[in-house]
Amino acid sequence: MHDLACVVHVHSTYSDGTASVPEILDAARSAGADAVLLTDHDTLGAKRDGWEGRHDGVLLAVGMEVSPKGGHLLAFGVDDEIGHEGRSAEEICAAVRAAGGLAFPAHPFSTGSAIAKSIGRPHPWPALETCDITGLELWSLMTETAEQQSSLRDLARFVRRPEGSIGNLPKANLARWDELCRTRRVVAIGGLDAHQTGLRIRGRALSPHPHTRIFRTLRTHVLTDDDPAPRDIYAALERGRCYVAMDSLAPASGFEFRAEGSGGTAEMGDEVQAGRWTLRARLPRVADVAVVRDGRAISWSESDSVEHVAEGPGVFRIQAALGGRTWIVSNPIYIR
Predict the structure, then answer these.
(1) The domain at 256-335 falls in which architecture?
(2) For 220-247, what is each residue's pLDDT tens digit?
(3) CATH architecture observed for domain 2-246
(4) Structure pTM?
(5) What are the Cα distances from residue 56, in Å, to 61, 215, 241, 247, 277?
């Protein structure tokens, strides 16, 4: 499988971003990203204008962020805008699915600014348990990093240089996701919510958050065949063939996680029947690695590989850290 390093949840001048689509593609190329999943608010304008496809080595897939007043929803693989006026959260998700799309709540665990809700209001997705979602944005980097700043000084430091304020993936996010996965498949992705906040003057964007730097941080690695099209990315996401990685700590491409047993081989995202399964993971470098079962770490090692016999049911995933910071979080293998 080909490991495609994707920057997900990016906004352009088609909605409230300061960068044009060509500038976003240039930034992704400079940052070494393979693909951009564009998600402008309530519009597929970039798709209608013919931007979807490959551009000098960077693949652009155009989705949208459905943006009612409450929580927002990333919709991938739809050909027309999904309206939200007068619709409940469940109805919005159902509309995305009926259109053949994938529904991923954006920043679903948002708590609002730690300083004051007047600075940043909470905007979580209101109905994770009852909506027909494909998955969720497990880590919404810019949104959650901004919300975590606990003083005006910290917030100013974040505005000046956001990379220096990035911490760990919130434990509460992991706990909620693990809980959801106990009863159904919920695919996790990592999103930037990148707007390149700033001003656009005389055709140039001026921002302390340039995409060239932000695109080097959190990525969703999607496992596809070689030379994928946007539809191939969406198919892999739907199956859970992806993992989340903070590539600014170390390149994560090449990470593998599967289970082998009498029933064959199971990959990330697969649901299989309980039995004797051997979990195997390979990392591109030595890290602190945990095997997590139903939200609880059951083995730890400092290694670049893992082998663990899983007897009985459970939702198993891999979590790796470097220097105490979250590096890789796999999607699970579900042994039911």
Answers:
(1) Sandwich (2.60)
(2) 999 998 889 999 999 999 999 999 999 9
(3) Alpha-Beta Barrel (3.20)
(4) 0.95
(5) 14, 17, 25, 22, 42
